[in-house]
Please model this.
Amino acid sequence: MSESNQQNQDFQSTLNLPNTSFSMKADLAQKEPMILGKWGQENLHRKLSEKSRGKKEFILHDGPPYANGHIHIGHALNKILKDFIVKTKAMQGFDSHYLPGWDCHGLPIEHQLFKELKKHKSEVDCVDFRKKAHEYAMKFVSIQREEFKRLGIFGEWDEPYLTLNPEYEYWILKSLAALNDKGYIYRGLKPVNWCAKCETALAEAEVEYENHTSPSIYVKFAVSNPEALGAEFKTKKVYLLVWTTTPWTLLANVAVCVNAAFRYVLLESNNELWVVEKTLSSSVMEKAGIKEFKIVKEIEGQALTKLKYNHPLGIRKDSPVVAGDYVTKEDGTGLVHTAPGHGQDDYETGLRYNLEVIMPVNDRGVYTQDAGVYQGEHVFKANDKIVEDLKNRGELLKSEAVTHSYPHCWRCKSPVIFRATKQWFLAVDHDNLRKRLADIIKKDVEWIPSSGEERILGMVSLRPDWCLSRQRYWGVPIPAIECRSCGHRDLFSEVINKFADIAKTEGTDAWFERPENDFVSASIKCSKCGKKDFVKTYDILDVWFDSGVSHQAVVKGVLKKDLPVDMYLEGSDQHRGWFQSSLIPAVAMEGKAPFKAVLTHGFVVDGEGRKMSKSLGNVVAPQDIIKQSGADILRLWVASSSYSEDVRISKETLTRLSDAYRKIRNTIRYILGNLSDFDPDSDSLQYKELVDLDKWALFKLGEYVSSIKDSYNKYEFAKAYNSIYTFCNEDLSSFYLDILKDRLYTSAAKSRERTSAQTVLYQILNHLVRLLAPLACYTSEEVFWAMPKGQGLQAADSVHLLEWLDVPEIWQDARIHDKFDILIRIRPFVLKALEEKRRDGLIGSSLEAKVIFVSSGKRDLEYFLSNRDMLPAAFIVSQVEIKEEAVETGIDADFPNTKILIERAPGQKCPRCWNVKLDIGKEKSFSALCGRCATIVKEIKDAK
Model:
């Protein structure tokens, strides 16, 4: 073969083909642990802390999860959202501090441990159990810590805050003492949510509502003084008709409540008279199956308070009818059976009318001897017997089973009861606290989404006093003391503070292990009888108080910062949980909120919107996703979700995300491949030296950078993710990079045309890798390690040590945008026409085509003629021709005077650039090449 022919054949080596170590296959499940290990070896978190030291702070205070099991998908959603914010703030130059924590006390951990031990509360020694609970909590702190780190979460993992640490317990007790000093803490007999299975009081935040089947009964309460309605009724059988779904509470009934503002009627049927609210009378009779009745009299609600009645089970006589505005017309009969020991409204009515509080139910939900024939029966099991007894006594009008929303224990999932017990409370109305809370909620806190404000306002306005005491073993003891002489219990701040000082070094087990004299000084006297002989009591503080005062223990105690911090972020259920339990003591103690902003997210549900449930088999474990697809896919699921609502997850969702991730990754890989020989310091061109198409790419990059940053700062992560995806998939892959291939591959390696493109590709990559870092933290690190670096980046060990870049003003050139506007609008029509000809068999590759624009439109002709040189590359065809002719039917309303024709391009195919050209062979030394390729190859050969 002659030298000339040899040269004609050896062209591949003259092309600039992509080359990168960044693989097409992600293999995230395998690569991410390696990256995580490298972060640990290089102590990345310490470097992040050193880098940000002294800068303006942004503190996102972590709401502590319970250390009682492996993390679930809800944990992943929560922690990843927090991590997005921490990372975005860090990359904007903030000292973005994230100190993770764990809630280590309370019923959640105690409940799980009892399940493991297969024992009941009464079967274990308190101190021994507390030590086991400590070990149990610490085990799961270690497990969850590694699971959170695997998600790519950055934080102070080596020194988290733990509510069981003696230092933290000290702050819990000091906060209790401060509130006690201010008069917020009291002991009272009040009905509280009570879990009979867990044998403890529950706060409002520890109750969740689930469907429950209860007996729905209409009961007749015989009026003992019917003449109070008029002399004509003296010998009549008159009854107050009451509806209830808790027959078991009837044993504690001491009154019937009506609404004084309502009008009631006397209905006559079967020689009996029944009192019912007027507007409900027809529906009540219909439910009772009674068709024949008549209204005998209308009565004002206030007039009914003259009546007395006998208990339908014969327990009491001449009980009163009282009035209360909480009686509604929504359901029932407009008359409410009142048992002050079994409900908050009932209790307040009892205080107003000096009613007896009867409590015939013990801690296990079993009737005591005060219940007479029902003694020893569990209250729920006694329902059927009570209904049967009412029927036998002729006091039952109607009975049926109904399924309704009913409070359940958040931990053991058992239905709760309302039970009056003596507990320690925080008075929400003391010192005008409720109003101050409302004012601060409205004026001082940003709620994200804004609907959170109304939600928490409603809850605070209606909430009862906070029940602080629990009858459990595991937690911080309330150091109340009981007088041996009179049995009165006192909570002295002096005792609390003494215990706090001891607990700071020994932990709170000291309350159980040390004698009373170690905590109680000789000067303390019983506030009731004045005696000085005391015994310790052993109620445990509500675990919500533990986490609720974390602003004292962590923000002030550990971080040494003042309130408020920048943000709290938790699930929307925490409006009634941690947000309130944090807000109440902060406002009570310091007169201000602990947070400037509160961001909430919804719950994770399956693809059909159903709650995750083992029984449904729809539980999605984050560990399984990570094992199969990698943590970055899980992070992108969070990023792509509208988190303010319930967030759906399914195999289909994850598959779509994996596809989207692949497109982003392949776009980045293409850019990296074309930068393998690019040195950012020596090869970059000035803006004025760039090709116009490359200037357009910088214009679009600037737009996206601004939009993405704005989305991050508004915590709109789905918008940020969608912008990144759209930029990669549409603006880059489908347009800019598609057009760029010929210039990148076939131009001389160091030509202005190729270097211009590389300069812009580097700028795109340098911005994109930073903007993607908060969302896909592992992949961004992998990209950063693979990308070329100038001197400014060579010293950086991680992309996460970088900050976002500003966009030069010069990039925002409206002239460049306008230049490509028509091209971008017409290009889809050209590609469609090419695809039709490919389908018809006229062409194979688009490079075999010639595009002919036929136009009579001045705008279009001027545009095509002035940009003739760039059109073939823009459409990835070999040739473009422009004809000025009249056009009857244009492309569309935007191009009414232009049409597109596709023909096979005349000439020969260049084996190097694959374009069909008319100048093949004009360069004798490279007779197979087009003129452009021949010139380039000649330069390459001569350079060698």
Residues 1-8 have pLDDT under 50 and may be disordered.
